[in-house]
Design a protein that fits this description.
The structure is a single chain. This protein folds into 3 domains: 165 residues, 2-Layer Sandwich (Alpha-Beta Plaits), CATH 3.30.70; 40 residues, GTP cyclohydrolase I, N-terminal domain (GTP Cyclohydrolase I, Chain A, domain 1, Orthogonal Bundle), CATH 1.10.286; 135 residues, GTP Cyclohydrolase I, domain 2. Helix 5 crosses helix 6. The chain starts with 5 loop residues before the first strand and ends with a helix. With 372 residues, it is of the alpha+beta class. 33% of the residues lie in helices and 24% in strands. The strands form 4 sheets. Strands 1, 2, 3, 4, 5 and 8 form a 6-stranded antiparallel sheet that branches. The protein has a 5-stranded mixed sheet with strand order 13-10-11-14-15, with helices on both faces. It has a two-stranded antiparallel sheet with strand order 6-7. It has 12 helices and 15 strands.
Length: 372
């Protein structure tokens, strides 16, 4: 794995069930470990190239990502997404396909692999590649020709009517609710998940077509994606470079009242509350805001509070190698409050001690005095 994240550009294309497959592919990309989607181009309507004049038109979009995957591993991950979306690979390069995902650029790498190359030669040959890429990274410099994406695309567009921004499709912004009045009736975010939510509505006796529920599957899919985004967020990405040498700093660092929101894995209902996180540094400290982000990484998954507490403690131990770590979490569980015994006032308290917080009674009681 490269030490650092590399910026790369992926071209997505679909001409089978394209209204569903293209957004779904981008969502899968968002959920690929070690890949972060930074930006997506407009969606372009593209006349199919090749010998078959009856081939259906494509949607194409370019996606700017950062990744810690090597090119071969990124390509394998992209093929996995193609397989998930029902792509059948054949020898015919003009075969209609549910989804095609190709690496166009990978940093400033120029290299031939077994049967494929980076940058993708299509970048300098095909408008359906160059135009979406120029839309998302106009200033990207092609590593061998030295030209920018914008100038490559501009040189191709004398007759650019074959590749036009789609009027029918816009990509939904992840995790953001559109303002009222925006016409996004064509919006699809996660077709398979949305279909499941719709079935769930039917199953509980609701009418998924009544006005208030029409966009509910879409909203639930987006919310679930956000609430479980911790699965694909890496600790490295969160901590980034916010670890500092602090020679001689040996006083306990305590961050109180870090809010957390999670979902219990038994009922998929929320539990939420506050965490107090402390450590005794051994030469290294971390930016305070990062502690809240670390809590988020583990909270945004299906969880039990005990494990969440342990994972936060272990993460800090791994990152900082301190003398010790203490984490106390206090949470309200809606699965207890709303159903069953309905114990509305019961808070659950969990704690996790590592190093001197476990072995040294004085350190532990100093910490616990600060918590209570
Ligand atoms: Zn529960």
């Amino acid at each position: 794995m490269p030490d650092h994240n590399v910026k790369a550009v992926v071209l997505a294309g679909s001409n089978v069930d394209r209204d569903r497959c293209l957004p779904e592919a981008i969502r899968h990309l968002r959920r690929t470990p070690n890949v972060t989607v930074e930006q997506v181009s407009a969606c372009f309507d593209t006349v199919a190239v090749g010998e078959n004049p009856n081939a259906p038109d494509f949607y194409n979009a370019a996606v700017l990502i950062t990744t810690s995957l090597e090119p071969e591993d990124l390509r394998t991950a992209l093929h996995g997404i193609e397989d998930d979306l029902g792509r059948v690979r054949t020898d015919d390069p003009n075969e209609p396909r549910t989804i095609d995902l190709d690496i166009v650029f990978y940093g400033d790498l120029a290299k031939d692999f077994d049967g494929w190359s980076i940058p993708d030669p299509a970048m300098e040959v095909h408008k359906h590649v160059a135009i979406p890429v120029a839309d998302v990274v106009p200033d990207w410099v092609h590593p061998t020709s030295g030209r920018t994406a914008r100038s490559i695309a501009d040189d191709m567009v004398e007759s650019n009517d074959e590749v036009t921004p789609s009027k029918a499709r816009e990509f939904s912004t992840p995790y953001v609710t559109r303002s009222a009045g925006f016409d996004d009736s064509a919006e699809v975010y996660a077709p398979r998940l949305e279909e499941l939510v719709r079935s769930q509505l039917v199953e509980i006796g609701e009418d998924p077509d009544r006005e208030g529920l029409q966009r509910t599957p879409l909203r639930v899919a987006k919310a679930l994606d956000f609430l479980t985004s911790g699965y694909t967020t890496s600790l490295d990405e969160v901590v980034n470079d916010a670890i500092f040498d602090a020679e001689g700093a040996e006083e306990m660092v305590v961050v109180r009242d870090v809010e957390f929101y999670s979902m219990c894995e038994h009922h998929m209902l929320p539990f939420f509350g506050k965490a107090t996180v402390a450590y005794l540094p051994k030469g290294k400290i971390i930016g305070l805001s990062k502690i809240a982000r670390i809590v988020d990484v583990y909270a945004r998954r299906l969880q039990v509070q005990e494990r969440l507490t342990n994972q936060v403690a272990d993460a800090l131990s791994d990152i900082l190698d301190p003398y010790g770590v203490g984490v106390v979490m206090e949470g309200k569980h809606l699965c207890m409050m709303m159903r069953g015994v309905q114990k509305q006032e019961s808070n659950m308290v969990t704690s996790s001690m590592r190093g001197t917080f476990r072995s040294d009674a004085r350190t532990r009681s100093e910490f616990l005095d600060l918590v209570t």
